[in-house]
TrEMBL record:
Organism: Mizugakiibacter sediminis
Record flagged with keyword Signal: yes
Keywords of this entry: Signal
Signal peptide (residue range): 1-34
SUPFAM superfamilies assigned to the protein according to its UniProt record, in alphabetical order: DPP6 N-terminal domain-like (SSF82171)
Name by which UniProt lists this protein: WD40 repeat protein
Amino acid sequence: MPTMKEIAVTKRDAAIWRAGVGLGAALVLTAAHAATTAAAVPQIFAPGVISGAQDEGAAAFTPDGDTVVFARGEGQRSTLFVSHRVGGAWSRPRVAPFSGRWRDLDPAMAPDGSFLLFVSNRPIVVGGAPLDALGTDGKRYVGRGMNLWRVDRHGDGWGAPVRLPDAINTSTMTFAPSVAGDGSVYFDARDPADGVIRLYRAQYRDGDYLPPVRVALGEAGAKIRDAAVAPDESFIVFSIVPAGSRAPLRLAIAFRERGGWSAPIDLGDRVNDAGYAMGSQLGADRRSVYFYSARREAHAPGAAWNNGSDNLWSVSLAPWLDAHRAAASP
């Protein structure tokens, strides 16, 4: 039976209900990786401009790294904002032209920057009602559904949002997209068979999506959320709670191995503080990850962005990527 946390779409609520309960074994952190992660320290992203007094969510970058789309909101509201980097500084965020009316969140940019995916409760048909969520208890929660939508980029402008087909939007709780280089989409969705939220991949082929396939990451029973896949699908960063644990979601990375994925490698305590770390999206360099967390920093106790709300952070993945490459070298 779901709690209100399971159907809320605020980022703070999501941090609780996505974690789930009744989870398993510890994450893998090899000595080789542990020895290389000392320099991997998260940095607040654009404090006072993008990371502010409200809750910020996932951030999606254009390939040149000079435009970012991110979610911001409070309570039950969430809106997508756009900011541009000019002269090395980020501009004051403005509401994206396709957002502002419905509850929009979880933006994910295609690797070539041609389109953006995002999550919304907006009506499926023009003039309809906001999307409701169907809880695991069979109850309907008005206006709290989540489906994936696409909006194309045209130069510096945006097209009209289009809902992705039912092949992907198989439930009213479909969220956290990530786009691979071939157009395939990774996303979280509730399994209609048992109500459990799982990670899926929908292959893009010949202009259409094939039926989604479950992605096996970690041990059975582990809760996987908010995956960000490399364009070539060589690695994937995600939030995880091992089976049997009630701990907050932690960031981990896995690498492609023989058609599957390696055991998850925890990014360590310097990245994963005492709270949750969620909303993974790769930076434009493909060697860093952006995520949101309510962590605080001691050096800025009075700053508005340091008030315990969700803010955006980034950390280099170079220690893990380089260690993996070195281990794979003959």
